[in-house]
Design brief:
- The structure holds three protein chains of three kinds.
- Chain A has twelve helices and eleven strands.
- By secondary structure, chain A is an alpha/beta fold.
- In chain A, α7 links the parallel β6 (147-150) and β7 (173-176).
- Chain B is mainly alpha-helical.
- Chain B is globular, with a radius of gyration of 22 Å.
- Chain C contains five helices and no strands.
- Chain C folds into two domains: 3-62; 73-153, no CATH class.
- Helices cover 69% and strands 0% of the residues of chain C.
- The longest helix of chain C is centred in the middle third of the chain and has 24 residues, at 73-96.
- In chain C, α1 (3-25) runs antiparallel to α2.
- By secondary structure, chain C is an all-alpha fold.
- The chains are: A alpha/beta, B mainly alpha, C mainly alpha.
């Protein structure tokens, strides 16, 4: 029965490829994280002017759960007619390595990379430490005494901080929180000494003078944080930084002409000045890679992640 | 000073009639979305964000706040009428709202709920307008040990909602807590009890559980009893509660509203917890606690005032710190960001032109709610007069669609149906289901913060009692348990007495 | 069935369940986490559940007056039928789409529940189906299943 339905679905899909008018109706963008969160807001900002660029609207649909597995799984299994596009995020690089799911980027047709974010280590304003060196020296002398809050086991920020500890032989007391917001409030309330979050997540707090960003785990300085050194500049180099990323992907087997249309269409939305302005305001660094570049980036990311996950005991 | 800003903001809103229209439209839409099982205020706001793109920021926000207010209130209507809370925040309202509705007094129940929502919501909005920065600073004092203590305090309300048997209530709560351990554990990165299923990796989500526990279970109960129990009809004539009844409830409403605003302002606690805490507190201090659960008006006023008070409270950390108080404010935060206002400490410095209209709008939303709710109560209360053989299938359908549309998942529908069947049999075996719900809300908070605290203290449990706020809440939890337990015993004694009397009279 | 047997039976089942959970949760030990790992909470809860269900069994055995359960047998069968209908409705939705399946579901459920009036059955199922469809699909833009049979519509 199921096979029959699938066969019928496939037949119908083929028949519709013949018609050149794509898209005829609104597209759906599946976001694997909840409404109002960082990823969701970016998705909504991206498709805000969709109608100007591709002629139809894009409806954002939040399919949450299981660290993004549910939503990305839905994209993977969506009907390959080009009407469903999925937002994919950093978790996809870790699922298989952490034993959460067998899904990897290889299960998708990649469209493009949207952004890369680097981790930032911050202390609350008025902390006894003014630089990364102060922290590292203290932590080395007092192993396990410095509490470091992060956004959840296996998240990019956790792994970034863990890599720093492993490479330089410093033993932090890691305190996992559930997401960026609780991590920030724990830092502000003085419940943890240090916090590892995305650098954009502490932009406003740093501008308001409530937190002091010590260093960023990136190759170059962030334009909105010209005074924050990279780890290497601060004297604590880690080999390749773990970067958080977001991108767009399609289920496999979408007809090639539709893929080409979507590639161009989303690139136009990506280049929309309003979207660019929005990302600059929230401190997000946009990085474009086409499908090939995106694939190289993800392949490389897996190589970086494997030893890091192993070091924190999360490798399955 | 802030008072002048507020007056200014009122003027801004009143100078443009369309702003008022957006408030009314938002509240109405919120009520509709809220009273549909499965469609929560969170979803309503998320779905309408794209629509607000085309509006000026203030109008867009007014509309979203209207949906927030209306949605939290609207959940109580379905809770009262069909024992299915439209939103989690209304789960405590059904305990007394539904029995009242079964006596044909649905209009009165909705009326009390409306007035309570208005009073509570206004208190919450005023607290937000005048005390936001101070409350936000206090909220920051809550670290992992405090959140754990707070969760334990919340769980101590189980006694108040356990019905006849405390032991069965405790078992239900334990099962609920165990259910929350299903899925990915963010502290260790380990998936638990997921059996390789991606859907289970996300854990038992809240909305399907809510619809199963109350919606489906009630539908099954209705169908089973359809042939033997005559249909209830709403009383005609005087539907709304009298002023004398309302006046007697004002202390309860005021206290619950304040309690709700405070609860809501702690990041992580939302309108749902506020409602349960207020219900437990109202029952603990009530003169006639034995009436609770059987249609006590205080039992409706307390949770309704608290959950709407919590809307204002939840806005506080979102606006001042950029940390959302609950799921709905997370969506509002996103909306503000998209409109170019990044909530956080800088918002109060740089964008007072948006902050004060938000405060003023929140107060106006409550006024709109009062008007719309009271004029609608008559209409709503007639809904249960519809032939049960038509109404029940419709409720059934709405529950199915509601559990599906949370995240467009058939898995969720199946899960809700399964929970519904279990909850139906639990009802037959006299197990209360509300403790499961409370456990689902508070379980992750209790577990994660307990473990987080032990990580902070490096396995030293004294961290819970050496920090003043945490110690205070744990002490409150003990006090609450002891007092409620005594009341519970006393109530059982009174009931047994009455029963014995009735039996002996029957024998004569 | 009476309340005494139910309490004992449920207590026993929960006792067994809690033992199974305790045993199963033992595998959840994360590295790099302190002594209160992912296994701690489930295991602590299952111990409590075990004690509570023992208590329930004890109460059950001590119960003097067993109250009979008031279940209407025919009603229960009807409830069972509607449950089956709901499950088939979900299946049907994938095949013929949301709208048709919903109207059919409403109609058949009304028949099962004994709604005698044919006009009421048809009118209410079509009207309610349309309203729900309009609200969810057009107003809220929730992607409802279109059904594979009508897929060529796009």
């Amino acid at each position: 029965m199921k096979k029959l339905i699938l066969a019928m679905a496939a037949a119908l899909t083929f028949s519709s490829t013949a018609s050149a008018d794509f898209p005829e109706k609104d597209l759906t963008l599946i976001v694997p994280w909840s409404a109002g969160g960082g990823t969701d807001t970016i998705a909504r900002a991206l498709v805000k002017n969709a109608e100007q660029h591709i002629g139809v609207n894009v409806n954002v649909v939040n399919k949450t759960g299981g660290q993004g597995v549910v939503g990305m799984g839905a994209t993977k299994l969506a009907r390959p007619d080009g009407y469903t596009v999925g937002l994919i995020t950093f978790g996809l690089s870790t699922y298989k390595l952490m034993g959460l799911s067998d899904m990897t980027y290889r299960d998708f047709d990649l469209l493009q990379l949207l952004n890369q974010s680097s981790a930032a280590l911050s202390v609350v304003e008025g902390s006894k430490w003014g630089s990364l060196e102060d922290v590292m020296t203290y932590a080395k002398a007092n192993p396990g005494q410095v509490t470091l809050g992060h956004t959840g086991a296996g998240a990019a920020w956790h792994l970034s901080a863990a890599a720093l500890g492993v490479v330089h032989g410093v033993d932090f007391n890691f305190i996992p929180f559930d997401g960026g917001a609780p991590t920030r409030s724990a830092l502000l309330g003085g419940h943890v000494d240090l916090a590892a979050t995305g650098i954009d997540e502490v932009k406003q707090l740093s501008e308001a003078g409530q937190v002091n960003v010590l260093a960023a785990n990136a190759l170059t300085r962030h334009p909105a944080f010209p005074n924050v050194p990279t780890l290497e500049e601060a004297g604590y180099k880690v080999d390749a930084p773990v970067l958080d990323w977001r991108g767009l992907a399609l289920p496999k087997n979408v007809p090639a002409d539709r893929v080409a249309f979507l590639e161009q269409g989303f690139k136009k939305m990506f280049d929309d000045p309003e979207f660019r302005q929005y990302c600059e305001d929230v401190g997000l660094i946009l990085v474009y890679e086409d499908s090939d570049g995106f694939e190289d980036f993800l392949a490389n990311m897996e190589k970086v992640l494997e030893p890091t996950l192993d070091a924190v005991g999360l490798l399955k | 000073m802030s008072f002048m800003y507020l007056l200014d903001a009122f003027q801004t809103i009143f100078s443009d009639v369309s702003s008022l229209l957006f408030i009314v439209a938002g509240v109405t839409a919120g009520i509709v979305v809220g009273c549909m099982p499965g469609l929560t205020a969170t979803m309503g706001c998320a779905l309408l964000i794209p629509f607000t793109f085309s509006l000026p920021p203030i109008q867009g926000l007014l509309m979203l706040m209207g949906i927030f207010t209306g949605g939290i209130y609207g959940g109580s209507i379905s809770a009262i009428l069909i024992r299915t809370p439209g939103t989690p925040a209304a789960a405590a309202t059904l305990l007394d709202g539904y029995p009242l509705s079964m006596r044909g007094e649905a209009g009165k129940a909705i009326g009390v709920g409306t007035v309570a929502s208005f009073v509570g919501g206004t208190i919450g909005a005023l607290i937000m307008a005048f005390m936001a920065p101070q409350i936000a600073q206090f909220g920051l004092k809550f670290g992992p040990p405090e959140f754990f203590a707070l969760a334990i305090f919340g769980l101590s309300m189980i006694i108040s909602i356990s019905g006849e048997s405390l032991l069965k209530g405790a078992i239900a709560a334990l099962v609920g807590l165990l259910l929350t351990t299903i899925g990915f554990d963010p502290l260790s990165g380990v998936p638990r009890f997921a059996f390789g299923n991606d859907n289970l990796l996300g854990g038992i989500t809240f909305i399907p559980a809510l619809i199963g526990l109350f919606g489906f279970a009630q539908v099954f109960r209705n169908i089973e009893k359809m042939e033997i129990v005559p249909q209830v009809r709403s009383k005609v004539g005087k539907i709304l509660p009298s002023w004398a009844e309302i006046r007697g409830l004002i202390p309860t409403m005021a206290k619950s509203g304040g309690l709700g605003a405070f609860t809501g302002s702690v990041p992580g606690l939302g309108c749902d917890v506020a409602a349960f805490v207020a219900y437990g507190e109202a029952k603990r201090t009530a003169k006639e606690p034995e009436k609770f659960g059987k249609g006590a008006l205080e039992g409706i006023a307390a949770p309704e005032a608290a959950n709407n008070g919590a809307t204002g409270g939840a806005m506080i950390p979102m606006l001042t710190l950029g940390v959302p108080g609950d799921a709905v404010t997370a969506v509002l935060l996103g909306a503000l960001t998209i409109h170019g206002f990044q909530p956080g400490p800088l918002l109060f410095r740089d964008h007072l032109e948006i902050v004060y209209p938000i405060f003023a709008g929140m107060i106006l939303c409550q006024v709109a709610l009062l008007g719309i709710g009271l004029s609608g109560a008559r209409l709503f209360s007639k809904l249960i007069n519809i032939d049960a053989r038509v109404l029940t299938p419709v409720i059934f359908l709405l529950c199915i669609v509601g559990s599906y549309s949370m995240r467009f998942s058939f898995f969720d529908v199946g899960l809700a149906l399964l929970i519904g069947v279990v909850a139906y049999f639990m009802g037959q075996a006299k197990f209360p289901v509300s403790p499961i719900l409370l456990a689902l809300i508070l379980g992750p908070m209790a577990e994660q913060n307990m473990r987080r605290s032990m990580m902070l203290s490096q396995d030293d449990p004294s961290i819970f009692v050496t920090r003043p706020i945490s110690a205070a809440f744990l002490a409150l939890a003990v006090l609450m348990t002891v007092v409620s337990y005594r009341k519970f015993k006393k109530m059982r004694a009174i009931e047994a007495d009455l029963k014995a009397k009735a039996d002996s009279e029957g024998a004569v | 069935m009476d309340s005494k047997r139910i309490d004992i039976g449920v207590g026993l089942a929960l006792c067994v369940l809690s033992v199974v959970i305790y045993w199963y949760a033992d595998q959840y030990t994360g590295r790099g986490v302190n002594s209160y790992g992912p296994n701690f909470f489930p295991q602590a809860l299952s111990v409590l559940l075990f004690l509570a269900s023992m208590g329930l069994m004890y109460q059950g055995f001590r119960q003097q007056m067993a109250e009979a359960l008031d279940v209407d047998r025919r009603g229960l069968i009807n409830a069972g039928i509607t449950l089956v209908l709901a499950v088939s409705y979900i299946g049907l939705m994938r095949l013929v789409g949301f709208y048709a399946a919903s109207v059919a579901f409403l109609y058949i459920t009304m028949v099962v529940l004994g709604q005698k009036n044919l006009k009421v059955r048809i009118a209410s199922s079509v009207i309610v189906g349309s309203i729900v469809y309009a609200i969810f699909f057009y107003l809220l833009k929730i992607p409802l299943p279109e059904g594979v049979l009508f897929e060529s519509v796009y």
